[in-house]
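Much of the work behind modern protein science is quiet bookkeeping, done one molecule at a time. The protein below has been through that process, and both of its lines are reproduced in full.
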Amino acid sequence: MHQLFAKIEAAKTAICRSWSESAQVGVVLGTGMNDIVDSLGLEVVIPYDSIPHFPVSTAIGHSGNLHCGQYCGQNVIAMQGRTHFYEGVPLADVTLPIRVMKAMGVNLLILTNASGGVNSQYGLGEVMVMEDHIDLLPDNPLRGVNDDRLGPRFPDMSQPYDPVLVDRALKIAREHQFVAHKGIYAAMAGPNYESRAEYRLMRHVGADVVGMSTVPEVIVAVHSGMRSLGLSTVTNICNPDRLEATSGETVVAMAAAAEEKVKAIICGVLEAEGSES
């Protein structure tokens, strides 16, 4: 982990050549959520491949640009797409952008993702606000010698998602009159979608949705001392007794169809943060 510090500084330096402000809020936009960043009106756009050590996403529907600017009085850094463990990148590198956000001053991290609905009460296109997660990935972004400059050796994970932000997100959904659940996200390695038996396992262990991202980023956010809010869009129904085939294109399309709901929550949270600062 000691090698990370130099990578973080190099990436931060490159970003600061285009945008030298400190930031308060970081946003990670996952599958099907690319257009949300246009609503924020952030003026600086930096391709990931121009930032040293930044992982470049190969996933469907992930544009690979970093947007920086101000929204509602808050300096915001927004990632238009992410890299996943299944793309062959070590988790310490997958989560490097979160470290860079922290180095630039971010203390609030908002993350979005697409997921399969394991809870039978969840419908397509509905949003789940993450209150907890189950980490089933075969690696951990904190694995290795700890660098105390980045965080503690054994970070506490009893409350990885800020309960105030969870309640705020649910309140915003009610105000906009759309369904939002509060539940648990399980992270699997991917890139294949899960089998019937695996969906049954997810139900048994208490997961409401299952996906392939977010959890490593939240672990690093906790390690770094950041507040986190996770928003998961249900893009396919995972009923093992009536399971239908799923494709990446279908997932992206369903996530994009629910984009306005996620945007309402993100903008509402940013507006509330701006009014409190």
Observations:
- The chain has one domain: 2-8+18-276.
